[in-house]
Write a structure and sequence with these properties.
Layout lengths: L1 H18 L6 E5 L10 H16 L2 E5 L7 H10 L4 E5 L4 H10 L4 E5 L10 E6 L1 H15 L4 E6 L4 H16 L5 E6 L6 H13 L4 E5 L3 H12 L2 E6 L10 E7 L1 H13 L7 E5 L6 E3 L9 H15 L9 H5 L5
Helix pairs in contact: 2-9, 5-6, 5-10, 7-8
């Protein structure tokens, strides 16, 4: 199936390169190994491309990466196709994207989830304050836990994922209850079986709500939640549809909005390369899922809205690392 999807994406790029008119803006993305239908940020990125196609008339395409070694060749394929803007989706592509941007100064590139101290003028980095949405779901988890124990499953141990964990931890602390947090990293974004195993272990240890920031690994968590009759908290997209009775909420990261916004700027003749764009609650880049109201009481949602306002206003500064969490004070 993965090979079939890979061949389909290459055919899409071939058609894309043949059909894009000289005056028609073209953008395309390269997924990480999670694939375009990962129910997470790759899928959200593709939805942003599709919206740009529908609303802006932009020509779009994608190539799926089956392994890390595919990143460089896939970047070359899109470069050879004459793509106006090439997206790398995920921090694991950072080295390959930077190398491509350095060698092809006239080609525009962008990447999700990475920032450099010095960014080439033909490259844009996009990062998200995922810790802010994680803080909100952590607060909800602590308030709704009946066992006083919740869990966090991370994909790979990397600063982007640490932001989710420490934002979640701070949100739990903000709730003012004594709640224990179980935490484990799968060192994968694709191993759903491992995610299910970790989740089952946490549920057996007494956790009744588990939050993941682990891509496809989270599919295993959600399956375990369904089987155990427990709660899971999704990530990146509103994942309630995967288990309507068991996904309590999701910490959304609006990769689709970032993709669309930059496509819109380019369609208007604007390019702001050489820097990093940061999306948080204030910019509409992160939030809790719209379906949260299905399972979370209205009075608790009102508390969450008040906390959002305090974060946007700067009263609460959400930690994103072990160091910043160490100095976090509940306010």
């Amino acid at each position: 199936m993965k090979r079939f999807r890979f061949l389909c994406s290459l055919i899409m790029v071939l058609v894309f390169s043949m059909s894009a008119g000289a005056s028609q803006l073209s953008i395309a993305m390269i997924t990480d190994v999670g694939g375009v239908n990962d129910q997470s940020f790759n899928q959200s990125a593709w939805e942003g491309h599709q919206r740009a196609e529908k609303e802006l008339g932009v020509k779009v395409a994608y190539i799926e990466s089956r392994q890390d070694a595919d990143y460089g060749p896939n970047l070359e394929t899109l470069f050879d196709a004459g793509t106006d803007l090439i997206w790398g989706i995920g921090f694991k592509m950072a080295d390959a994207v930077l190398e491509a941007a350095t060698h092809n100064a006239d080609q525009k590139y962008a990447i999700i989830d990475f920032a450099w101290e010095k960014t080439p003028e033909n490259l844009i980095g996009v990062v998200f304050k995922a810790e802010e949405a994680s803080f909100l779901v952590g607060y909800i988890a602590a308030k709704m836990s009946k066992t006083g124990k919740v869990g966090f499953i991370g994909g790979m141990s990397f600063p982007v994922i640490w932001g989710f964990e420490y934002g979640f931890r701070a949100g739990v602390a903000q709730a003012g209850k004594k709640v224990e947090i179980l935490s484990q990293y799968a060192e994968s974004f694709t191993d759903a079986a491992k995610g299910k195993s970790i989740a089952n272990s946490m549920y057996q240890q007494g956790a009744d709500i588990i939050f993941h920031a682990a891509g496809g690994v989270g599919d295993g968590l959600i399956e375990a939640a369904k089987e155990q009759g427990k709660w899971a908290i999704g990530v990146d997209r509103d994942q309630n549809y995967l288990a309507p009775d068991n996904v309590l909420t999701s910490a959304m990261k609006r990769v689709d909005n970032a993709i669309f916004n930059i496509a819109k700027e380019m369609s208007e003749g604007k390019w702001q390369g050489g820097h990093t764009v940061s999306y948080g609650l204030a910019e509409g880049g992160v939030d809790i899922a719209p379906t949260t109201s299905k399972h979370v009481p209205a009075d608790l949602l009102a508390e969450v809205e008040a906390i959002k306002a305090r974060i946007i206003g700067g009263e609460i500064v959400v930690p994103f690392s072990k160091e910043t969490f160490a100095s976090f004070e509940v306010k």
